[in-house]
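Hello K.,

You asked for the raw outputs rather than the summary table, so here they are, unedited. I folded two proteins back to back in the same session to keep the settings identical. This is the first:
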Amino acid sequence: MEKKLITPDDTIYDIVTRYPEVKQRLLEISPRYQNLNNPALFQTVARLTTVKKAAAMGNIYLREMLYQLNDAIGLGEEYLQQEKSSTANLSMNPDIYRPTEKPPWWDQKTPFHILDVRGKSHPFEEITIAVKRLQPGEGLLVLQEFVPYPLIDYLKTQQYEVFYETKDSTVIVGFYKKEA
């Protein structure tokens, strides 16, 4: 059987059935996937759960999840090459991420929590945890040395509004949880 890349829309049931080695990788990635060991849940929930949904449930960045699953079936390098080619033009034109207009909440940023991650090598998890603690109507300002494009992409998929601006050598990224 020819292996093909696992995508965000594939269901957990389909990929684990097609590639049994994926199950072990999922169990290693997060304890939240222990339900794969329950035959009844595997036959029902796994049929409806896409890789994208599973990544969100496990609090895992989707691209990391896709890499891990594709790597488990021996296609990790192929996945990385696909990602590089599909994002090559994005890195050449970072202005496509630049918001054009300040959102109304940006000027009210004084009650926002502030998280300074300048100089930290891997602050992704620290930032996502802080953002998920926000209540509706609250925001978080992250001080960083560069625009964290993957983080922005990820948190937009989690329904947070994002705006950033650069002051001197610091990028100030605002994440805002919409009011209900």
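The second followed immediately with the same parameters:
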Amino acid sequence: MKNAIFILVAFSLVACNGTGQNTSEKNKSPMNDSNKVVKTEEEWKKALSAEQYNVLREKGTERPFSGKYYLHTEKGMYVCAGCCSELFKSDTKFDAGCGWPSFSDVVDSAKVVYIKDKSHGMIRTEITCSTCGGHLGHVFDDGPAPTGLRYCINSASIEFKK
């Protein structure tokens, strides 16, 4: 079963071409038949800011307590900065004190892909956008009820819509 999940995740990443895009209209990309955003790396470099590209495409991480959505409290929806896919409702956002925006649940579990991450001497679960393949952050099992999860997300990987 684990091998089947790994193959499915790997296929999803290949199908997505590991890409993300900015939310502005001029950067909207056509979707392929499976509703995945597909762009070349050069197209992403043009569409995303340097920080967005580093986080979404190169799996970078912004400095803790520095992101524009860390202390953000408006009501609305957080969407992927790469493809505008709806990811988190503001009513699931909470202050985990970790330095990054934290959410207790995703809008729909099909909106993210869960990947085992063994980088930096740790074992974590990375989450990527299932539509564009952009790196969002990591999910941990130390969040509040009812899910018990903490989706620790880079501000550069999301945009906010009222």
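The chain has one domain: 2-161.

Happy to rerun anything if the numbers look odd on your end.

Regards,
P.
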